Amino acid sequence: MFTFLIIIMITQDVHGTRCSALNGTCKMECLPTETSLTGHGCCHLKKCCYAPCESGWLFLPGSNCYFFSTTSEDWETAKARCMYLGAKLSEPVTQSEIDYISNIARSRNGTFWLGGTDKDNEGTFVWTSDNRTIGLSNWAGGEPNNYANREDCVAVHAKLGFLWNDSPCDSRSLFTCETKPLTI
Ligand SMILES: [Ca+2]
Ligand SMILES: [Ca+2]
C-alpha cells in the first residue's frame, strides 16, 4: 500500500496534473509573484507554484491582480486603458485593498485614479463598473469637496497622504486597474 502511494505521488510530480493546467510548476519554494496550491499536482515535498496574475501585475492574495500605470491620463482615458487590458479601474472595497493600493501609491510617490465617480449624481460616489454606491472609503480630511464645482473623479492622492480626493476628471494622473486572478 505504501509503495502504491509513492508511485502515485511520483506520477503526479512528473506529470504535474492540475499544476500544469495552470502553467504551474513544482518547486521547493514559490517566487514572490507566485502562489502555491497545496495538494495539487506535486509530491508532498514540493509546492505547486503558479502566477495568478499576468506579467507586470501585482497580486494581493484573496483579492485581485493590480496594474499600476507609469503614464498619466485623464480619468476617462484611464478607464478605457484598463478596459483595453481586460480590466477596470481599481475599485477597492475592503480595508486590505484600500491599504494595499495606498501603500503602492506611496512607494511610487504618485497620484493614481480609482474607479470612483460622482459625475452622474453630484455628491453620490459610485464605482463606475456597476454603479454600486461606494461604501467603505478612505477620504482625506475635508474631501470630497467638489472644489470649484468641478471634481467628480476619485484618486489616491500623493499630496493628501495617499488618501482619497475627488479631483477634476480631465486632469491627468497615473491610474490603477484591477482584474480577477487566475484561480482553479
Ligand atoms: Ca463632484
Ligand atoms: Ca477634492
From TrEMBL:
Alphabetically sorted, this entry's keywords are: Disulfide bond, Signal
Per the record, the domain of life is Eukaryota
Check the record and name the SUPFAM superfamilies matching this protein.
C-type lectin-like
SMART domains per the record? CLECT
- Signal peptide start and end residues: 1-16
CDD domains on file: CLECT (cd00037)
Every C-type lectin domain range: 61-178
InterPro entries in alphabetical order: C-type_lectin-like (IPR001304), C-type_lectin-like/link_sf (IPR016186), C-type_lectin/snaclec_domain (IPR050111), C-type_lectin_CS (IPR018378), CTDL_fold (IPR016187)
List the PROSITE patterns hit by this protein, alphabetically.
C_TYPE_LECTIN_1, C_TYPE_LECTIN_2
What's the short name of a Pfam family annotated to this entry?
Lectin_C
UniProt xrefs under Gene3D superfamilies: Mannose-Binding Protein A, subunit A
Q: Name the PANTHER family on file.
A: MANNOSE, PHOSPHOLIPASE, LECTIN RECEPTOR RELATED
Q: What is this protein called?
A: C-type lectin domain-containing protein
The organism's taxonomic lineage, starting at the top:
Eukaryota, Metazoa, Spiralia, Lophotrochozoa, Mollusca
